[in-house]
Amino acid sequence: MHIHILGICGTFMAGVALLARAAGHTVSGCDANVYPPMSTQLAGAGIALREGYDPGQLAEFQPDMIVVGNVMSRGRPIVETLLDGNLPYTSGPAWLAEHVLRDRHVLAVAGTHGKTTTSSLLAWILDDAGLEPGFLIGGIPANFGQSARLGRAPFFVVEADEYDTAFFDKRSKFVHYRPRTLVLNNLEFDHADIFPDLAAIQRQFHHLLRTVPGAGLVVANGDDANLTEVLALGCWTPVEKFGAGDWEARDFAADGSAFEVCHQGVRQGRVAWSQSGAHNVHNALAAIAAARHAGVPSERAIHALARFEGVKRRLETRGAANGVTVYDDFAHHPTAIATTLAGLRARVGDRPIIAVLEPRSNTMKLGVFKDSLAPALAAADAVVLYQAPDLGWDLDAVATALGSRGQVCHTLDDTLAAIRERAEPGTQVLIMSNGGFGGIHERLLQSLRAGGG
């Protein structure tokens, strides 16, 4: 079967493409924004890519099935062509559910923050235990070097996103997955482009809970009041709570690099690993609990965490030059920004941190979080804000709230110059964006190596 994917370079759809290719299908696709690491993965798998959404590609490839990403909308010529031509189409989540997840023990990780890292942790624990799980993750775990694989039955780990499915299916993606093990990391308001308020998101999470069997397990953050409200709407599955409840971390190092794991008050072992931050301690507890439901003893999971190598674009060290270290992070919500900064601060102590932010998500572009950005960036010694042409609101007020630490730049060249002006040996530069940010990470490192401005 030839599958053609519209919006193939998104983290989820790229994973679907890789799974389809591994299952023996011919796969092609298109996207308007083709950039690494996903484009590199796809090309390496022998998947034909087209830049843009020219309807002519449907006649060129003549696919047996068109998988439509949620970036597509009515009115786009390629969408109108497939509808007018009565061509076969489906959504990414529906294709995944029907062709990959059916008859598997699905372990789904949902929540506003930490989905990618927790999914990666869970997949790695299962793999280290010899279970060879399949997975689809919205990032690239360093231990695997790929975002998706079919694996060996029965286990499959999926990052369960609450964003809508497609232009013809406005339910959250995760309602398609029917997990047997469900992790609920946390819940905040996000995706203001599709959800009017927090209650609307909670309703989708409730719908997800309705799909978990009574013989399954829900692993929920016991410190999250919004999730407590979701569970109160109805839950027909046993619940284990982490953070506060069944699974707790004790005697942890200030930077989160070591901690004791306790289950119902009984010590399970001590984690010593390369990750940092209190948020990753919670992520680890959730992954240990979920893996235990799949049959991995907590002691075995704890040992596996010592060899966990992290995830690309999650406080990933991109390089160092002239004493300046450059990090890349996907953070695009005020809570994630503050958490990432706190994790880096715990790691580097009093060394100066320059935070560089491109507000790029749909919610950011709407300005929903504009009053929360300055407080979220408070732990940085300096902040460089990139005012993209399509942002839709002015970042100057955020910079003003940050005082002398804040600066707004309107071009990438100016952004690079502002970083260079503030950077000195020992400086940690944290670059945050959920896009490619014009390749600014490598451009900065090259500039630092050259010693130029």
Describe the largest sheet.
Answer: 7 strands, mixed
Silhouette: globular
How many structural domains does the protein architecture include? 3
The CATH H-level superfamily of the largest domain is Mur-like, catalytic domain
Structural class: alpha/beta
Rg (C-alpha, Å)? 22 Å
How much helix, percentage-wise, in residues?
Answer: 25-40%
Q: What is the beta-strand fraction?
A: 15-25%
Word description of this protein:
- The chain is of the alpha/beta class and 453 residues long.
- It has three domains: 2-91, NAD(P)-binding Rossmann-like Domain (Rossmann fold, 3-Layer(aba) Sandwich), CATH 3.40.50.720; 103-305, Mur-like, catalytic domain (UDP-N-acetylmuramoyl-L-alanine:D-glutamate ligase, 3-Layer(aba) Sandwich), CATH 3.40.1190.10; 316-450, Protein-Tyrosine Phosphatase, Chain A (Alpha-Beta Complex), CATH 3.90.190.
- The protein has 16 helices and 23 strands.
- It has helices at residues 11-22, 38-44, 56-61, 77-84, 92-101, 115-128, 198-209, 225-232, 278-293, 298-305, 334-348, 362-365, 370-376, 396-402, 412-422, 440-450, and strands at residues 2-6, 26-31, 48-51, 65-68, 89-91, 105-110, 134-136, 148-149, 155-159, 164-166, 169-172, 181-184, 217-221, 239-242, 247-250, 258-263, 266-272, 316-321, 324-329, 353-357, 382-386, 406-409, 428-432.
- The chain has a seven-stranded mixed beta sheet, with helices on both faces.
- Strand 15 (247-250) and strand 16 form a beta hairpin.
- The protein is globular, with a radius of gyration of 22 Å.
- The mean pLDDT is 93.
